[in-house]
Specification:
The protein has 295 residues and is α/β, with parallel strands linked by helices. The chain has helices at 14-53, 65-77, 213-217; strands at residues 3-10, 100-102, 108-112, 119-120, 134-136, 141-144, 158-160, 165-169, 182-184, 189-192, 202-205, 223-227, 238-242, 248-251, 262-265, 268-269, 277-280, 289-294. It has 2 domains: 5-36 and 234-294, Immunoglobulin-like (Sandwich); 52-227, Ribonuclease Inhibitor (Leucine-rich repeat, LRR (right-handed beta-alpha superhelix)). The radius of gyration is 23 Å and the shape is elongated.
Amino acid sequence: MKEFTLLFTLLLTSHLLNAQNRENESQTQKERHLKEYQILQQEENYLQQLHEKSNLKSFKVAANEQDSLALVAIYNSTGGDNWTNNTGWLTDSVANWFGITLNESGRVLEIIIYSNNLKGTIPKEIGDLEIITDIDFFGNFLYGQVPIEMGNLINLDWLMLGKNQLTGIIPVEFRLLSKLRNLSVSNNNFTEFPSLSPLYKKNIWAHTNKFTFEDIEHNLAIASYFEYSPQAKVGQIENHFVEIGQTDTLIVSVGGEHNVYQWYKDGTLVSGANNDSLIIENFSSTDTGSYYCKI
């Protein structure tokens, strides 16, 4: 569910009522944070299971030059000197670099450097890792946009970008990743999720971003598992100061074709309030409170 919250206060008693509204809003935030934490724990547990099941063998061979340069670009762009673990990077042969798996031809198969204090942007050179199957950058401090060159990584099986600070649009080029089975972009600041059709039967974690329903609906058909809720609140908190006897209208505007709306006042469901707007006629002191709409 997404929440659109409006603080709706009576003009003559706004100071007292705002204090009550802040308390109600605080309780709503606590419930939201608890749900986000529970979903995140489930996601992290699943990722751990993926790592445990991975049985790729790393060969101690000379690395492909193109792949080596791509790895160096990742190191430099994400503050490699300050990673929690950068064992071997830039000082030893690539086969001994922390988190790197090579195949028998020296091509990079895996980059597994989750929760490793990566800070910076993902460089476009990552798109040169043509053979790679697994990338795990989960739980770092990456920011900026995901480079469209990642659409070149047609052998990817799982791509974990969750729990970072990435922004912008999920690249439409991801629809070229036909072998991708697991995609995590959760807990970021993404604002648009294009249709990834013709991908099919994917596990997707996209919760805790800034997506709206048009982003979600056109990807439901491709997912065998899709964790998309919660998302950031839609719009900004608004203070409405209303005189007794007046009429006021609260409106929420989001995309999507199959939305279901439910309005709440001070955390309590408003019976029959199931549209994208809530009209309050002949305003009285009992109408004062904190309103939001779950969609």
